[in-house]
Design a protein that fits this description.
Layout (H helix, E strand, L loop, with lengths): L1 H19 L1 E3 L4 H11 L2 H12 L1 H12 L9 H14 L3 E4 L5 E5 L7 E7 L13 E3 L2 E3 L7 H16 L7 E7 L9 H9 L6 E5 L6 E6 L1 E10 L3 E2 L9 H19 L6 E10 L5 E2 L2 E10 L2 H23 L9 E10 L9 H12 L5 E5 L4 H5 L4 E4 L4 E3 L7 E3 L3 H16 L4
Parallel strand pairs: 4-7, 4-8, 8-17, 9-16
Antiparallel strand pairs: 1-16, 2-3, 3-7, 5-6, 6-19, 10-14, 10-15, 11-13, 12-14, 18-19
Helix pairs in contact: 2-10, 3-6, 3-12, 4-6, 5-6, 6-12, 8-9, 10-12
Length: 430
């Protein structure tokens, strides 16, 4: 009973904190009429029927993909398998780029625009993790079953339904299965797509959420550092007096936390966190190194740059102050390693892409909530390219944990939502 109460408190607290970052938006009448007209077309209705018929196949493919391990930087096996699936579904051209992304181009009628839709290949779990899908009643249990493997199977079914219903679009559509969205992958897949410049992307849709009523419209930027103090090390008694990296790091954390707390007390919300700390060999040894990993976040690019400067300045100050008191042996050295950087950005609610998303949500009798997140949308938003992240539907929980689960509750509706969203943005060709 205590465990249940604790889980409920955590769940409600998390939901409350998440809701604070959301805002209800309503679609303008123009876009409501556009979606109503599009949804009534014979081809879209046919595609909806096909999605329903493909439900057993979609579930089968979800299980197959989930059982292929895909940690960041080790997505190759899953990428090759998904590439084969896309080829079998039917695509005009397909390739794997230098970053490891699977890119599949479905040509439009030639209005010169390209809509990018993506789901990420990687999960947070190490290669040796057991990713076997276990089915209990209507529930699928497996690490990565929802985040983000369901989005891959959803995207594949959207492509199949478009092909089987003979849907042509005005714009080209680039289907992408991207690498490196999670953790230290640092959005390397989506960054590569926009960095190369070989493909002109006009709008972007990522599938990487839960409830289809919720869309990410703003990118929460982050900067991450690994900071290391190095010294000679030695015996706690015999070498006493030598510089101690742990002691210097304690000073650095105190200096940084004090200055950063004052900095984030006003202006756009900005956060900081010392998430990991390590070093040392034994309780009776002066450590030869101490390291910390720090996460900085803000919606404001300026605030993010500001708190980064505080981190670097205060840590360097701590090093100088500590070394000034070292009387024996060599002084400490300091190393900064930037291990992650996700750009930030905010978009207007009246952007056509956001308005269409709200109209599609309302078409499915939902209520649209726009919010902030750290997803593949960060990169295009920071570059001024309209982008949203939409949900994969169904019902699930425990993402990023070994007991992640997902239920196919109205799962077909989420796929229909994705198809209607994509075609509305790409334009249904006559």
């Amino acid at each position: 009973m205590k465990k249940f109460i604790l889980f409920t408190i955590i769940f409600l607290t998390t939901s409350f904190l998440h809701a604070q970052n959301e805002k209800n938006i309503s679609a303008q009448s123009f876009y409501k009429k556009e979606i109503d007209k599009l949804s009534s077309s014979a081809k879209i209705q046919k595609a909806f029927e096909i999605i329903q018929e493909l439900e057993p196949t979609s579930m089968k493919e979800l299980i197959e993909l989930t059982q292929i391990p895909a940690p960041p930087f080790q997505e190759q096996k899953r990428a090759e398998y998904f590439k084969k699936m896309l080829e079998e579904a039917g695509i005009d051209s397909i390739w794997i780029d230098q970053a490891g992304n699977v890119l599949a181009l479905r040509k439009g009628k030639g209005n010169g625009k390209t809509v990018l839709i993506d789901a990420h290949l990687d999960t947070v779990f190490p290669l040796e993790t057991d990713v076997t899908v276990k089915i209990k009643g209507d529930t699928l249990f497996a690490p990565g079953i929802g985040d983000d493997t369901r989005a891959l199977s959803m995207m594949l079914t959207v492509l199949k339904a478009m092909n089987k219903a003979s849907i042509s679009t005005e714009s080209d559509i680039l289907f992408a299965a991207t690498v490196g969205e999670e953790g230290l992958g640092d959005l390397r897949g989506i960054k590569n797509i926009f960095k190369t410049g070989a493909l002109k992307i006009n709008t972007h849709i990522a599938i990487d959420g839960g409830d289809i009523n919720r869309i990410v419209t703003n990118g929460l930027g982050s900067i991450r550092y690994k900071i290391t103090f190095n010294g000679p090390g030695g015996h706690s008694w015999g070498a006493f007096g030598l510089a101690n990296p742990h002691h210097a790091m304690g000073k650095a954390i105190d200096y940084f936390s004090t200055a950063a707390s004052d900095y984030v007390s006003s202006g756009p919300k900005t956060t900081f966190n010392v998430g990991r700390i390590g070093g040392g060999t034994s309780v009776n040894s002066i450590p030869f190194e101490t390291w910390i990993e720090v996460d900085l976040r803000s919606l404001s690019p300026e605030k993010l740059i500001g708190i980064e400067k505080i981190l670097l300045d205060q840590t360097s100050r701590a090093l100088n102050d500590y070394n000034a008191g070292v009387k024996t042996g060599v002084k400490l050295s300091l190393n900064f390693e930037k291990i992650g950087e996700r750009p930030s950005g905010v978009q207007r609610e009246d952007l056509p892409l956001i308005q269409r998303a709200a109209a599609v949500i309302e078409f499915f009798n939902g209520k649209a909530f726009a919010g902030t997140g750290s997803t593949n949308s960060n990169t295009p938003i920071s570059l001024g390219v309209p982008s949203i992240t939409i949900g994969r539907g169904g019902k699930g929980a425990n993402a990023h944990s070994l007991n992640e689960w997902w239920i196919n509750e109205k799962g077909a509706e989420a796929i229909k939502f994705g198809l209607l969203m994509l075609v509305s943005e790409a334009g249904l060709a006559k």
